[in-house]
Amino acid sequence: MKEQIGLDRLTGLIAFARAGALGSYSAAARSLSVSPSAISKSIQRLEKQLGITLFTRTTRSLVLTAEGRELHERALRLLRDAEEIEQIAKQARAEPAGILRIAASLPVGIHVIAPLLPAFCARYPKVTIDLRLSDRVVSLVDENIDIAIRLGELADSSLLLRRLPPYQIGCYASPEYLARCAPPQHPNDLSGHTTVNLRYQNTGQLFRWPFRVGEREIEMLPSSTIIADTSEAVIAAIVAGAGIGMAANFMAASRVSEKKLVPLLGDFAVERRDLSAVWHESRRANPAVRAFLDHMLTPF
């Protein structure tokens, strides 16, 4: 007669599967909404129960042993089956409910997702939002994410996708700066202005400013006095009067309405249609996912 699996062992297998997929106890803990010590203890118990070592641990890395690699894919299948059971249960309820895990970059999360949440939660009070903001591209399956909001053209994948409403990229400056310097009338006039620019954290490259000139789109790389590696810092600097900066309209809208920023070169602003919501096939019929996707279709 086969020994029945205990709850501790099942918990350990889930912790092992997630830690092996994400490469650290901390990442696994965030994904499962528990503490890193809980992950560590669960895996230690599992190793003792199985009589094998699953990971080689150093101060900086977590590497599967040969025995761990052999068991990891099976543990991942167990985890996916458990998540599928959870999704089937959610679908059966029909009414949106439970935890909805959403991943986005920091600027998109702050300016696009967060403002939508109060109305969504008021309409669907049984849904709890778990919003995770990071500039890295998360794995929806490994990190148990229901919806990810991604900016830019996406590589081919098996994920389902819905394009979100278009947005514009344009120039902005504070009223204080414009009181000192006459606003530019053409992108070429920027050479006579102080500018603030963005450096991408993942590549180290500077943001090239796009403009629509006639039927063409051109790019310029201004010589900037201030360069920051987050969009929020760029916005904060231009609000404080540091010069002219470029941003998406959904990021600048609140500062414009507060009269802290003034749009510039509006005739040359470019439109982008590269903001997308993506989700895994297993979430297709999840009522909370469907409801949130519909909720997001309001133009920015």
Task: Give an overview in words.
With 300 residues, the chain is an alpha/beta fold. Helices cover 38% and strands 23% of the residues. Strands 7, 8, 11, 12, 13 and 14 form a 6-stranded mixed sheet that branches. The protein has a 5-stranded mixed sheet with strand order 4-3-5-15-6. The protein has a two-stranded antiparallel ribbon with strand order 1-2. It comes from Phytobacter ursingii. Pfam families: HTH_1 (PF00126), LysR_substrate (PF03466).
Keywords:
single chain; 300 residues; alpha/beta; six-stranded mixed beta sheet; 15 strands
Query: Main β-sheet: number of strands, strand sense, barrel status?
Result: 6 strands, mixed
Mean pLDDT: 89
Strand content: 15-25%
Task: Quote the distance from N terminus to C terminus.
Answer: 61 Å
Number of strands: 15
Structural class by sheet pairing and helices: alpha/beta
Sequence of secondary-structure elements: HHHEEHEHHEEEEHEEEEHEHEEEH
Low-pLDDT segments, ≥5 res: none
Oligomer: single chain
Rounded radius of gyration (Å): 24 Å
Describe the structure concisely:
The protein is α/β, with parallel strands linked by helices and 300 residues long.
Topology, pairings included?
Layout: H1 7-22, H2 25-32, H3 36-50, E1 55-57, E2 62-64, H4 66-93, E3 98-104, H5 106-113, H6 117-123, E4 127-133, E5 147-151, E6 160-163, E7 167-173, H7 175-180, E8 195-198, E9 209-213, E10 216-220, E11 226-228, H8 231-239, E12 244-248, H9 249-257, E13 262-264, E14 270-272, E15 275-279, H10 287-295
Parallel strand pairs: 3-4, 3-5, 8-11, 8-12
Antiparallel strand pairs: 1-2, 5-15, 6-15, 7-12, 7-13, 7-14, 9-10
Helix pairs in contact: 1-2, 1-3, 1-4, 2-3
